[in-house]
Amino acid sequence: MSEALEKVSQEIEKLQDEMVKALVELIKIPAISPDYGYEGEYDKAQKLLEIIKDWPFDKVEVYNAPDERAKNGVRPSILAYYYGQNGEKSPRIWILTHIDVVPPGDMSKWTVTEPFKPVVKDGKVYGRGSEDNGQSLVASLYAVKAMMNLGIRPKRTVILAFVSDEETGSKYGVEWLMREHPELFRKDDLVLVPDGGNEEGTFIEVAEKSILWLRVKVRGKQVHASMPDKGLNAHRVALDFAYHLDKLLHEKYGERDELFDPPESTFEPTMVRGPADSPNIAPGEHEVVFDCRILPRYSIDDILADAERLAEEVREKYRKEFDGEVLPEIEFEILQRMDAPTPTDPNSEIVKLLQEALRKLRGKEAKVGGIGGGTFAAYFRKLGIPAVVWATLDETAHQPNEYAWIKNMVEDAKVMAALALL
Questions:
Q1: CA angle 141-144-145, nearest 5°?
Q2: CA atoms of 378 and 196, how far apart (whole Å)
Q3: pTM, entire model
């Protein structure tokens, strides 16, 4: 291990209490998307700016994506630069984390603490957003602060990006930044997205599946449940369609690719909505959402075409006319779509650099692979910029009693510093 990395690692350990305090303060602030009826990330971004206001970053920039639903009408993202040994001419590494979190979910399942009242217990910090993505956000901050405290300039300029809207599709986050400010990004940048991994910190994600969130809207005709022939039960139509769509997708798109975990495409019905509020009403409307994670070999357009063909078959099966109106209607709404980009080359510089850092700091050999989840890395890969996803996580994200291991936060900070120093 180099002398600089050893000193920085020791400094990070000294900063552990400060790291925990910062994570606790950030968890206290709900930064939940307006898509879920909340205010967004503004207050949390302000707290983050307050934390780093006296730190000697070379440049801190705030980019506000307009969103009239959010507090103050914006979804903020923050970029903080710490220049390398050759100043602005130094090669660059991005470390991107997100400041938004998902809603708490079932409050009765939060048994350790309330979601936004963080608790430090048994070496862990509990609270919504602790692991996803607070642990890595704080780790990236203090990887840089340790270098600042020691007066060490790294080999590579570090760009810490704290970005909005990761949990609901990045329309107001990375996607907006790349569209509105393409000058920020360079083809020779290296990118780490610490938003996925395993408990040992030995998994480097280099590929993602395509993502399709598809809402199916069925409209029939509401009627009293004792007289079903006088209407058209939207539930029955939707259940028939959803069952056959699920079966079709699994059978037709069922090949495996061992690069990924899980190795096959997944097609999961998730959200369901129907307006019937009484047992004796056959409802006239029904919605179901499919979360599809699709191997890159398959086309989302082909899947959508198959869904439309099946919808036409179901329309004909249940076809009825009411006062000149032909029912049922079956419509599709794409809530999110991300076509899988070309994977990051397992022999690329960022992969080799991360593997070297893990060897030096942990004595472990990391493997590469693909995942079904979506991350910021996909957006960089679409630009032809190599990006990896890595962190040391128990994968408690989105669960009640979400937690982050303090030891993982500290040790991951060391690895992040190594990526800048080696």
A1: 80
A2: 13
A3: 0.85
Pick the CATH number of 212-336 from 3.30.70.360, 3.40.50.150, 3.40.50.2020, 3.10.20.70: 3.30.70.360
Structural tokens at position 24: 């606790």
State the pLDDT at residue 168: 92
**From the candidates 41, 165, 166, 411, which is the catalytic residue?**
166
Q: How far is the CA of 181 from the CAs of 63, 156, 276, in angstroms?
A: 9, 22, 46
Alpha helices in 253-368 (DSSP H): 300-318, 349-362
Residues 6 or more apart in contact with residue 310 via CB below 8 angstroms: 241, 244, 245, 248
Q: Which residues contact 416 (CB under 8 A, 6 or more apart)?
A: 95, 139, 140, 143, 192, 194
Instruction: Please tell me the CATH code under which domain 3-208+340-421 is placed.
Output: 3.40.630.10
pLDDT of residue 373: 80
166 tagged catalytic: yes
Q: Which of 35, 41, 67, 100 is catalytic?
A: 100
pLDDT at residue 202, as a whole number: 97
Cβ(196)–Cβ(270) below 8 Å: no
Residue 63 to residues 8, 157, 164, 304, Cα–Cα distance (Å) = 30, 20, 10, 35
Locate 294 and state its tokens.
């699709």
pLDDT of residue 160: 98
> Taking a C-beta distance cutoff of 8 angstroms, is the pair 276, 283 a contact?
yes
In terms of phi and psi (left: phi > 0; alpha: psi -120 to 50; beta: otherwise), the region of 73 is left
Q: What pLDDT is stored for residue 200 in this prediction?
A: 96
Let me know if 195 is a catalytic residue: no
Nearest Cα to Cα of residue 56 among 78, 31, 81, 38: 81
Spans in the chain with pLDDT lower than 70:
1
What whole-number distance in Å separates Cα of residue 92 and Cα of residue 189?
5
Q: Which residues of 155-177 are buried (b: 16+ CB within 10 A; e: fewer)?
A: ebbbbbbbbbbbbbbbbbbbbbb
- pLDDT at residue number 298: 97
Place of tokens 């690329």: 348
Determine contact, residues 383/188, Cβ cutoff 8 Å.
no
pLDDT of residue 275: 79
Each domain of the chain, given as residue ranges in start order, spans 3-208+340-421, 212-336
